[in-house]
Amino acid sequence: MNGRPPLVLASRSSRRADILTQMGVPFVVDSADIDETPLPIETPRELVMRLATAKCLAVAARHPADTVVLGADTTVDVDGEIFGTPTHIDHARTMLRRLSGRTHLVHTAVCVAHGGDHRADRGTDHRTALDTAAVAMHPIDADLLERYLATGESLDKAGAYAIQGEAAMFVERVTGHLTTVVGLPVRVVEQLLASLSGR
Fold first, then answer.
1. Which residue of 21, 82, 176, 189 has the fewest C-beta atoms within 10 A of its own C-beta?
2. Residue 44 lies in a domain
3. Catalytic positions, please?
4. H runs (alpha helix) in the chain
5. Which domain holds residue 15?
6. Which tens digit of pLDDT belongs to each residue from 130-168?
7. pTM here?
């Protein structure tokens, strides 16, 4: 990894793991277990920034100081409403019907930190950044929607769809970086890792 410290991915997301692999970045997985419930009046951007940072710092506390930890969070933003991971198939159906034939935003926040204790009284050595892409959806045919829901793909994805999977047929265009929609913006990861190594 060009002399960088070992990287720990604070996520069990296979999509994020795939992106790091494609970037040629060696890593291990140590996922965070935190409450991802939005706070009252929290905006979609505020939510992903908070959760990416919380995931990263929770995992960083378990690793030595020569480790770099990367946490990320993604949400779908429909007119300021947070579309997280659906809780059941009917929830996914409702989300996709709302997304049909319109444009929505996808926000992904990334946080990187060195391992060690990041309690407030010891200071925090971490960097967090946000990237946003706009996704325009075709009108989704009812039969196609039901066939997609039957695949089960929607149930662990923010906004109930995976742009790199079967739901690609619903997408008219993406304005911004595709990796932001997938869940780990490559450009942001590269910039944050470079900035942290230069501390």
1. 21
2. yes
3. 73
4. 14-23, 44-60, 89-99, 142-151, 178-182, 186-197
5. 7-197
6. 999 999 999 999 999 999 999 999 988 889 998 988 999
7. 0.91
